[in-house]
Amino acid sequence: xxxxxxxxxxxxxxxxxxxxxxxxxxxxxxxxxxxxxxxxxxxxxxxxxxxxxxxxxxxxxxxxxxxxxxxxxxxxxxxxxxxxxxxxxxxxxxxxxxxxxxxxxxxxxxxxxxxxxxxxxxxxxxxxxxxxxxxxxxxxxxxxxxxxxxxxxxxxxxxxxxxxxxxxxxxxxxxxxxxxxxxxxxxxxxxxxxxxxxxxxxxxxxxxxxxxxxxxxxxxxxxxxxxx
Length: 228
What we know:
By secondary structure, the protein is α+β, with helices and mostly antiparallel strands.
């Protein structure tokens, strides 16, 4: 055997080195799962939706922002809110009540952009003095127009929860999201899945957060780590 290895050192190296690299990469993914401590802090996160309701953290507490007098619509319009429990390693959706919003200020535009103004101009002729004056008035009106600002209301179900909003938890974990596409192929019915998955990551360790997404295309958004 030694003679064979000595006479075929290049061949042996060409075969063994890739195997060694594969083993190293496999161990690099497995070892942290056993050597890195599990997460110690609960996580509050939401779907990164782009509707008219958004979550924000004010003074370390979760608030929901919306326009005064806004119409809530169905429950499907509510942004989803989740909590990962580090002790049970489970994710639960937080069933919260949409807050009552104040009425809009009378005479104030409820939208955050001025109303469009149309001024007819003949492109083949220079604008008249009257058109220039009308344009100036319209621009000034837009600049000085009062617009209704969104209001921020605490989420009652989380009033006693204090958050650390750093991107990395006090014990070193980070919330990561990945967009993945999976096709079942012809042997498993041809089904497919596309969407975001969420994990807590630290030093090569990954902890999956299986949460009941309302829409797989909505990316998870970190709100904070529960510190109290």
